[in-house]
Write a structure and sequence with these properties.
Blueprint (H helix, E strand, L loop, with lengths): L5 E4 L3 H13 L5 E4 L16 E2 L10 H20 L3 E2 L3 E5 L5 H13 L6 E3 L1 H7 L7 E5 L3 E3 L1 H14 L3 E3 L6 E5 L2 E6 L2 E5 L1 E4 L5 H6 L8 E12 L10 E4 L11 E4 L5 E4 L3 E2 L13 H8 L2 H9 L1 H12 L1 H8 L11 E13 L10 E5 L2 E6 L8 H10 L8
Parallel strand pairs: 1-2, 1-13, 2-9, 5-15, 13-21
Antiparallel strand pairs: 3-8, 4-8, 5-7, 6-7, 10-11, 11-12, 14-17, 14-18, 14-19, 15-16, 16-17, 20-21
Helix pairs in contact: 1-5, 1-11, 2-11, 9-10
């Protein structure tokens, strides 16, 4: 067995899942997770909607499709073993206009190819049986789409690593990586660490950390802030599960939807507004370095030109609660601007290629003992345990105890 540990950069749910998988597969192997914050799951893991996806949207044959299907099953089992919240509340993807029916049919075909369990197409009467306050002419119902608390899941994974004598190094930002003979040197404010292998799962900073070890220059991370509205307590029962719009293929995100949480709240959102700071959860948060990286990337301008109308709509919805809620009230007419207040926000690490293409599938690179998870957006949290299997399958780790 190697005397040096395997290092992981990033204490979000994916990095922790990989660390846990390593300790399971190689008993006695030392694992150290470097996390720059003072807690695990501080960024994307702790700011997402909590939805466990069933695989409706993803291109058949893609890494996303395969790992989402496997990951959902593993996650459900993990939550059951740990007695963590996991509620199969189900999801409706609702068409409210005739013009959306063609896209709904295409989505149904994709979901069938991905073996989404229990999926069926329903009409207006069944829509109201499932969600009595919803409006729509047709919908896809996914009964096994679920909700959980991904922060609690991440904390449980961290506990598993520590129980196996691994280490979670908090407040340990990685600011340098280099070769040191047959080892890899990871530099943090607390000093250097030598590891045998390194896995980079740095989320919003994934491109920057990867480039420390001569990783590819693309894709570049462009941050998008997703803002939520919180529904008043007396209106929460208007929605039983999850209600989503039919996605528009011209637009890179799924659109505003209605989501229950395992804590009993009802949220509307998120939207998608360009963030001026990678970890900027407030509108006033600005980082000149992050803005410089955005505007200097040719792919950003190509993407902006292709999506400027949608971008302006998102900005207006961010500024106006009335405009924001007009979209949501198409699906639940009884829910209006007066029934919500501004809630939390998250930031999505959107990977963008030089040609302006928003990277859809997971992207994972390996170079000379360093694995870099460069793109793992939604359903990254759902897929985390399957991503861990995939990464560890390709990681040559010498021996075990």
């Amino acid at each position: 067995m190697s005397k040096r540990p395997v290092g992981i950069v990033g204490g979000g749910i994916i990095g922790l899942a990989i660390g846990r998988e390593l300790t399971k597969r190689f008993p006695g192997l030392e694992v150290v997770v470097f996390e720059k914050e003072n807690r695990v799951g501080a960024h994307q893991t702790g700011h997402n909607s909590g939805v466990v996806h069933a695989g409706i949207y993803y291109k058949p044959g893609s890494l996303k499709a395969a790992l989402c299907t496997r990951g959902r099953a593993l996650l459900r089992e993990f939550c059951a073993e740990r007695d963590l919240a996991y509620d199969e509340c189900g999801k409706l993807v609702v068409a409210v206009e005739e013009s959306e029916l063609g896209r709904l049919a295409a989505l149904q075909q994709t979901a069938r190819q991905n073996d989404v369990p229990g999926l069926r197409r329903v009409g207006p009467e069944e829509i109201r049986e499932i969600e009595p306050n919803a409006a729509g002419i047709e919908a896809l119902h996914s009964p096994e789409t679920a909700i959980t608390d991904f922060t609690s899941v991440a904390e449980a994974m961290a506990g598993d690593i520590e129980m196996a004598d691994g280490r979670i190094a908090l407040s340990a930002e990685v600011n340098g990586v280099g070769r040191a003979g047959d080892a890899i040197e990871v530099r943090t404010p607390g000093g250097p660490h030598l590891v045998s292998k390194l896995v980079i799962c740095a989320g919003l900073q994934s491109d920057r950390v990867s480039e420390l070890v001569d990783g590819p220059s693309e894709p570049r991370i462009v941050p998008f802030r997703g803002e939520y509205m919180t529904v008043r307590a007396d209106k929460r029962d208007l929605v039983r599960g999850l209600i989503y719009p039919v996605p528009d293929p011209r637009y890179p995100f799924l659109g505003v939807h209605l989501t229950r949480t395992v804590s009993g709240e009802l949220e509307v959102g998120p939207n998608a507004v360009l963030a001026l700071k990678r970890e900027g959860y407030r509108r006033r948060d600005v980082s000149f370095r992050d803005v410089g990286d955005i505007v200097s990337w040719p792919g950003f301008w190509r993407m902006a030109v292709a999506n400027w109308r949608a971008g302006l709509e998102e900005v207006w919805g961010s500024l106006s609660i009335d405009a924001y809620m007009r979209k949501a009230s198409r699906y639940v007419p009884e829910l209006g601007a007066q029934d919500v207040e501004r809630g939390r926000a998250g930031v999505r690490a959107q990977a963008l290629d030089r040609d302006g293409s928003l990277v859809d599938d997971f992207r994972i690179f390996e170079t000379d003992g360093v694995v870099s998870v460069r793109n793992a957006p939604s359903p990254g949290a759902t897929s985390s345990l399957a991503i861990a299997e995939h990464v560890v399958d390709g990681l040559e780790v010498s021996g075990s105890a």
